[in-house]
Amino acid sequence: MTAATTRSHDWDQVLTELQSIASGQSETIEIIRDPAQVAKLSKDYYSYSPLLVAALADKVGDVVVRPANEAEVIQVAAVCTRHRIPVTVRGAGTGNYGQCIPLRGGVILDMSKMQAVKWAKPGMARVEAGVKMAALDKQTREIGWEIRMAPSTYRTATIGGFIGGGSGGIGSITYGLLADRGNLLALRVVTMEEEPQVIELRGDDVYKVAHAWGTNGIITELEIPLAPAYPWAEFIVTFPDFMTAARFGQALGDADGIVKKLICICAAPISNYFAPFKDHIPADSHCALLMVAEPCLEPFGELVKEFGGMIRYQKSAQETGKGVAIGEFTWNHTTLHARSIDPSLTYLQTLFPADKELKLVEHLYHHFGDEVMMHLEYIRVKGVVIPAALQIVRYSTPERLQEIIKYHEDNGALIANPHTYIIEEGGRKTIDPQQLEFKKRVDPYGLLNPGKMRTWEELQAT
């Protein structure tokens, strides 16, 4: 049993100490005790998974604390460490695996008030963890730069939440994944010790904290690289059959001379779930949702023609940002739109091996048929364009879901299991030894998001 579960809490005393932080600061910390609000802020989009719903539906925090600056974070960390209160760090709650759902109650540390852009210059930006990605992008585009990649929850997601729980997204076709060296420059974290410290991590040391679901320190600031801001045009292109669409996606990904930000391929009947585009996409169409730089539209059009595609929807870069955004129908938003019509649907997260012929994609598409609807997102991994997938699954039973996962794995596909809240059981399969060692240093009592890192729990049980 970890230290986070061995002590009963004197909440009156804890709240008194937290309130004293508020009264002593010019930028007042916010403390939320209303049960309905606390319950709401204890959740993310775990409801995508019926298995996570069964495991997490009753898990809530005891109180939500919203610090306005790093000094307040340090004081909250000190209070919680002193009383051995679990702390679960939260951004905008747009994750899908229960990353920000507290398993053992305690304080929900909501970072959404920390929205300062410390500085932005060509190629780089320094920001607080609660900065919304769309707001940052808007500011950096004024100097001709933009964030390299973003989730489909771009308008609401925070940069700290994305780094803490995400892996890639719109832009990964060019810049790879967050875990790739160079996509994160520095992190500033507060530790959970009797006297909390502030640690600046740079270079490869950032991976001691990145994608650790808030178990390895409280991220307060980040330094990230930026990309040149192109004028992005948005498209929906339909194809006569799915594999032609998939091969078009591969060809576009491999076409280094065509600058692109998004290549999303959806098998029928997924497009039927895209209500705003019902007048543009014929029913039961196989389609590609794309973002392409406007200077590249002529060669892009030639590639569409080569594969027999038909452009059904086009929005110029000048119009982009107004109304419906194509990116909000890709990545995990594809699942969101499908579930808005049929809540029984769930999904998988899959990484296919590099293969220009897409043999495994084709085999699985035909093997499962309509039970596992193929949804590909092309990304760049170690310089090679490959399809990742967020297939939409017609859920029946946990046993059948496991059979589907096993069949994928037995045939050479990597499943990043979205139906678990344990770090090691997702895409990683094992904990990074440097993350475990860093946790020993910065969170000796196991108070940060307890229960999510299996290796730590096993270590504490011995």
What can you tell me about this protein's structure?
The chain starts with 10 loop residues before the first helix and ends with a helix. It has three domains: 3-110, Uridine Diphospho-n-acetylenolpyruvylglucosamine Reductase, domain 2 (2-Layer Sandwich); 117-228, 2-Layer Sandwich (Uridine Diphospho-n-acetylenolpyruvylglucosamine Reductase, domain 3); 232-415, FAD-linked oxidases, C-terminal domain (Vanillyl-alcohol Oxidase, Chain A, domain 3, 3-Layer(aba) Sandwich), CATH 3.40.462.10. The protein has an eight-stranded antiparallel sheet. The chain is α+β, with helices and mostly antiparallel strands and 462 residues long. Residues 1-7 have low confidence and may be disordered. The protein contains 14 helices and 21 strands. Helix 1 packs antiparallel against helix 4 (70-83). The chain has helices at 11-23, 35-40, 50-56, 70-83, 133-141, 159-165, 172-175, 242-254, 297-306, 332-341, 359-368, 398-410, 433-442, 454-461; strands at 30-32, 63-66, 87-90, 107-110, 117-121, 124-128, 145-147, 186-190, 198-202, 218-228, 232-239, 260-266, 286-293, 310-315, 345-347, 350-351, 372-373, 375-381, 384-389, 392-394, 414-415. A hairpin with a 7-residue loop joins strand 8 and strand 9. Helices cover 29% and strands 22% of the residues.
